[in-house]
Amino acid sequence: MIASNFSYVTYFNGDGLANRLRLHCLAYAYALNTKRKLIVNWKRNNNCYATYHDLFVGRPCSYELLGLGERLFFRSVKRFDCYSFEKGTLTNGENVESLINPPHRVVSVSNLEASTGGGSRLGSYHQEVLRSLLPRPEIEKRVSQFMGQFKSPTVGIHVRQGDFLNKYNTALPPVKRYVAIVRLLAQLWPSAVFILVSDGNEEVLMPLLNTGKCKVREKVNERHTLEGVQDALIDLLILARTNLVISTPYSSFGGFAAMLGNKPIVRAQEDWETQLVEAINQKLTFCDRPR
After folding, report:
1. Could you tell me the CA-to-CA distances from 91 to 49, 83, 88, 170, 222 in Å, in that order?
2. Is 267 within 8 Å of 244 (Cβ atoms)?
3. What is the superkingdom listed in this entry's lineage (predicted)?
């Protein structure tokens, strides 16, 4: 028998990989805060053709992995005793510990704003939640093999193209801006290695690839497959393990990678030089501050 007072947290997000991960972390932090059990709800679609367990191993559990008795209990209480947060419940500066703890047996956090733009919303559960995102062994092996070849400090560069060409188009930074960032960093730290992660085509990225120290790996370009999503996770984990992340504005991919690795991030905006100086002065420990 399942205890009648057992409670759950669940969520649904049909977006891409990084957006799902942001909401997943917020839901898990809320589950820890309210002593509930997190039920992962990832369905394959064209935005992310992978389930949570296709990518990770760990404590959070999907509905399919519950025992029969608990599955029946969860379905029952979800139908009759479910609470959903309104969109925008968390305001700037608030984290998961500021949320109410309703008496409902199932709480859905699907509508909560999970942005990492203003910092982590995970409160005191930040490290515990991030430690729970353990990639599957075959994914971890590929990340470690790639990163293991670099002995010098690394800078990850995320150039988002793909669907952003239709979403933001004119607002996207020109590739020459990333080139300028790389050239300045190469002057400041000649030993640094630049790792390029992008869904753009080679012709567009050529000016960046020709800067000298930009490294790329062979990837699965078809994102609408399980292998493609696993490959995208490898990109994200690689970014998280660099010393500094340079990322496209508006993209949650680079932002989540920086949060996952607890690394400074510089958005390729017009004020990128100011951001870079702040990152150097506050967080970068692998090099001397520029004069």
Report:
1. 31, 19, 7, 29, 37
2. no
3. Bacteria
Note the pLDDT tens digit of each residue in 223-267.
Answer: 688 999 999 999 999 999 999 999 988 788 999 999 899 888 999
Q: Which CATH code fits 137-282?
A: 3.40.50.11350
**Cα–Cα distance between 230 and 54 in angstroms, integer?**
8
Q: In whole angstroms, what is the distance from residue 226 CA to residue 230 CA?
A: 6
Q: What span, in angstroms and rounded, lies between the C-alpha atoms of 77 and 157?
A: 45
Contact 173, 251 (CB under 8 A): no
**What does the alpha-carbon distance between residue 266 and residue 271 come to, in Å, rounded to a whole number?**
9
50-75 burial, b if ≥16 CB within 10 A, otherwise e? bbbbbbbeeebbeeeebeeebeebbe
DSSP state of 174: P
- Could you tell me which CATH number the domain at 8-135 has? 3.40.50
The whole-model pTM stands at 0.89
Which residue ranges make up each domain of the chain?
Answer: 8-135, 137-282
pLDDT at 1: 42
- Asked whether 135 and 58 are in contact (CB, 8 A), the reply is no
> Considering just the CA atoms, what is the radius of gyration of the chain in Å?
20
Neighbouring-strand partners of residue 57: 134
DSSP string, 209-270: HTTSSEE--------SSHHHHHHHHHHHHHHHTSSEEEE-TT-HHHHHHHHHHT--EEE-ST
